[in-house]
Amino acid sequence: MQLTNFLAAVAVFLPIVYGAPTQAANSLHPEILAAMKRDLGLDAEQAHVRVARELKATEVIEQLKTKAGFGGAWLVDGELNVAVTDEALTSEVTAAGAKPITVSNSLSKLEEAKEALDKIDLPQTLSKSANEAGIATWYVDVTANKLVIEALSASTSQAADLAKQVGLVESEFEVRTVSELPSTFATVRGGDAYYINNSARCSVGFSVTTGFVSAGHCGSTGARATTSSGVSIGTFAGSVFPGSGDFSFIRSVSGNTYSGTVNNYAGGSIAISGSTASGVGASICRSGSTTGVYCGTVRALGVTVNYSQGAVTGMTQTNVCAEPGDSGGSWYSGSQAQGVTSGGSGNCNSGGTTFFQPVNEILSTYGLTLVRG
Ligand SMILES: *[C@@H]1O[C@H](CO)[C@@H](O)[C@H](O)[C@H]1NC(C)=O
Ligand SMILES: *[C@@H]1O[C@H](CO)[C@@H](O)[C@H](O)[C@H]1NC(C)=O
Known about the structure:
Layout: H1 2-17, H2 30-40, H3 44-64, E1 70-76, E2 79-84, H4 90-95, E3 99-102, H5 107-118, H6 122-127, E4 135-141, E5 146-151, H7 156-165, E6 173-177, E7 187-190, E8 193-196, E9 200-203, E10 206-208, E11 211-214, E12 224-226, E13 232-240, E14 247-251, E15 257-263, E16 269-271, E17 283-288, E18 292-307, E19 310-318, E20 330-333, E21 336-347, E22 351-358, H8 359-366
Parallel strand pairs: 2-3, 5-6, 7-15
Antiparallel strand pairs: 1-2, 4-5, 8-9, 8-12, 10-11, 11-14, 12-13, 13-14, 15-16, 17-18, 17-20, 18-19, 19-22, 20-21, 21-22
The structure holds 2-acetamido-2-deoxy-beta-D-glucopyranose (2 copies).
Signal peptide: 1-19
Protein name: Peptidase alpha-lytic pro domain protein
Active site: 217, 246, 327
């Protein structure tokens, strides 16, 4: 009966404004219908009605938006609402089958303020200053008849200052708090660089189904992990160093891909197929974001390493070199994951000794599952 209601409504106002109904709404592809059923709960008939109605609404908006006093338009359950700042437009809106809503802020003023904000280099100047600071979005919200700025909590007063800077008064803007800055998505892979709290660099160890593992000295619980381009790839959910190990678990951020591979620093990736630990004398390689790939052999298992921060137990000693920034990176024998880089001595010019944290202890401590490539 929704269809009947809709057709009745069309019959009343269609001849006044639109002319003949368009064909498009009658030809929704079965896959689109299935997705609309899944995501919007609409059956085929409801989907066709909805789309036809929205097409009509677009035509009405096109016609009204050039008129003086037009304040924006939006749909509420298929009904077209049109904001008007001039009462003279009310009857025209009603005649077009839409609902007029009287508002006070001029749409053009809000749009001009928004364009002025576009010219200020906001994301760069604000989001890098601190982890909790940043402006996420700004737009004219026609339903609120305001310019909306979305910001992290530490930046809400800056957001309000910016709105005033572009000429708006309190009644013309609204600052909304969001918990996370938006970003593009990344692929996380063993051996790749990541940054902690936007400063120090480490390397990814291995992807797990809920994020990735790395070294504990790379970050404390709560620290933020990002790619070199600033894409958020997780938050440290657990971190141990020194003491019983040097490991961390960084919980994933949705939208990213956590790949079961390791960067081979030769233009490709190595697929990881398990985590069977190698014994003393076994060949072993590692990938890290400072020096790339180096290989050698396992020298000792269960080593206690006395770092200046304190002793760490359960390390594996190798004769493979590493350097700062390689920390947290992947160790593997063939396609078997072995561990994450902890520390050592020497460097990759003169050679060195490096200790790694065995990966299986990290997986069992946090109940994680390795992603296989
Ligand atoms: C990073 O930020 C978190 C949360 O603000 C903090 O606990 C941590 O000490 C910072 N630094 C490192 C290296 O983890
Ligand atoms: C461990 O290292 C610290 C600092 O490097 C040092 O002060 C301490 O004496 C060492 N422990 C032992 C048992 O030598």
